[in-house]
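Milestone M4 deliverable, item 7.
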Amino acid sequence: TMTTTPNDADRTIYRKELMAALNVTSSETIRRWLKSERLPPPDVNLSQRTQGWRVSTLRAAGINLA
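Output delivered:
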């Protein structure tokens, strides 16, 4: 059995991992989804390439990751 800590429940998922989880191969797709508000704005936005979302933010937007 896998145990989860409270940290896992709200860890930050960065762009590359999010792309893999959503089965997206292009950063352009992520950019378009952000623009069209299909994705919520990132919680961590250090640069165009370094963006991260909290799991809770994604869930609140209706995006459930396995």
